[in-house]
Amino acid sequence: MRRRLLSSTLLVAVIGVLLLGIPLGVAVNRLIEEEATQELSSHAKSLLGEVEYARIQDQPVDEQQLERKYSDLYIQIYAKGTPPQVITVGTEPPESQKMTEDAQSENGVYVAVSRDKTGVEREVRAWLFLILGLAAAALAVAVGLAIVQSRRLTLPLSDLAMIAERLGSGDARPSKHRYGIQELDRVAEVLDRSATRISDLLAREREFATDASHQLRTPLTGLTMRLEEIVAAADEPGIVKEEGEAAIVQAERLTAVIDELLATARRQRQAQSEIVELDVLLDQQFIEWGPAFRRAGRRLSLVGTRGLQALGTGGGISQVISTLLENSLEHGGGTVTVTTSARDRSIVIEVADQGSGIPDELAPRVFERNVSGRGSTGLGLPLARALAAADGGRLELVRARPAAFAFFLRQVGEPGRNRVVRGPA
After folding, report:
1. How far apart are CA 391 and CA 347, in angstroms?
2. Taking burial as the number of CB atoms within 10 A of a residue's CB, which of 43, 62, 104, 159 is the most buried?
3. How far is residue 422 from each of residues 16, 272, 391, measured CA to CA in Å?
4. Cis peptide before 364 (omega within 30 of 0)
5. How far apart are CA 283 and CA 263, in angstroms?
6. Which residues are 104's β-sheet partners?
7. Cα distance between residue 2 and residue 143, in whole Å
8. How far apart are alpha carbons 88 and 284 in whole angstroms?
9. Rounded to an integer, what distance in angstroms lies between the CA atom of residue 139 and that of residue 312?
10. What phi-psi label fits residue 307: left (phi over 0), alpha (psi between -120 and 50 degrees) or beta?
């Protein structure tokens, strides 16, 4: 491409120089010759006047004065009379290099002025050499501009090709390079927007994988506990049956979580909200987490209003409660109290423990991703808040020390949207 730009620019410059230089050279040649001719004619007329004046004054023509005054000219003067007067001043140039202009009066005086054409030709050549020099300079400038322009065009194109190749290899960082050329800058902007979109897609894919692993861990933990209880009570058929049924429930819950994650990945989480019996859901959570708390020497307590119903999805509400209980088990202390209550516009499930609570500097950021004060993943609470929002509710930290979280749910019969809001989970 650079070679084509150079050759095309040089061709255009040569054509331009020829179209302008040749007519200019011809015009300069004619102008100099016409100027020399007019000068000779002027000298001839001036001499004619001088000779006429000398004849009127009955004075002879001073040849020495004429030779001094017109040293580079050859002058011939012819005056009628008896005898006729002929005066010649200067050296006659060769016939081939001779330029002559004359003048004649009514009194019979004839003056011819000649000069050597060599000086005129020398001046013409000097101007032609100047024109050629300017043409060469113009061509050099054109070549230089072509080189600069070709670099200005080809280097950005090479850079854009590298950016596109890097984008194709998975490096989705926007380059933010601009080149001062509108068309190339537009291509660079498109590539940067594409890089941003690809980067967002990759980030969402990584986020989904992280969220999926975290959300699957909770039902798997519950299933593991059930299986451990089965193994520990191998000699007691009643307990084995009870724990086996609980393990089946955990497996069904794990399947539901996987289905929900797949629907979220396809952006199809548009499930209808339903009426959820909170007593059944909370009793199930206590059955699942009771053994883990007992092994840790801690107690679970359920207080508050019974028989409450809320709008949402059973899987989403269970995930939120399970996350809060898991956080209390790992990071809290003492008895964990789950309190249910009905307020004017919402159903509230509060989970509180008797531990040291959340540090003051961490409390405002507790729902941010990857924020954790004790080495955990920092994903549980952000995912729980997203699930709460997806069910049309919200999850808030109501007290930092000791920690207490409140899960606000929609009441049955609440006016508004019936569809669950698609959250970022």
Report:
1. 13
2. 43
3. 68, 11, 8
4. no
5. 27
6. 110
7. 12
8. 140
9. 79
10. left
Tens digits of per-residue pLDDT, 155-178? 777 777 777 777 776 666 777 777
Long-range contacts for 66-71 (Cβ within 8 Å, ≥24 apart)? 70/43, 70/113
Alpha carbon of 419 to those of 14, 264, 271: distances in Å? 74, 15, 7
| Three-state secondary structure of 317-372 | HHHHHHHHHHHHHHHCCCCEEEEEEECCCEEEEEEECCCCCCCCCCHHHCCCCCCC
CB 402 within 8 A of CB 356: yes
Largest CA distance in the chain: 169
Check if the beta carbon of residue 265 is closer than 8 Å to that of residue 208.
Answer: yes
Cα separation of 86 and 109, whole Å? Answer: 10
Residue 211 structure tokens? 């969220």
Nearest-angstrom CA–CA distance, 373 and 173:
31
The answer to whether residues 43 and 73 touch, using CB atoms and an 8 Å cutoff, is yes
**Cα–Cα distance, 115 to 20 (Å, whole number):** 32
Per-residue pLDDT of the chain (425 residues; tens, 9 = 90+): 667 777 777 788 888 888 888 888 889 889 988 998 999 999 889 888 888 888 888 788 788 888 888 888 898 988 887 677 888 888 888 888 888 999 988 888 899 999 988 888 889 899 999 988 988 888 888 888 888 777 777 777 777 777 777 777 666 677 777 767 777 778 778 777 777 777 776 676 666 666 666 566 666 666 666 677 666 666 677 766 776 766 666 666 666 666 665 655 544 444 457 889 999 999 988 988 888 888 889 999 999 999 999 998 888 898 899 889 988 988 889 999 999 999 888 999 999 999 888 888 888 888 887 676 665 656 778 888 888 888 889 999 999 889 999 999 998 876 544 444 444 43
By CB atoms closer than 10 A (0-12, 13-18, 19+), residue 391 is: buried
d(CA 54, CA 132): 49
Q: What is the pLDDT of residues 61-100, one digit of tens each?
A: 788 888 888 888 898 988 887 677 888 888 888 888 888 9
Number of neighbours of residue 33 by Cβ within 10 angstroms: 16
366 is written with which tokens? 């507790």
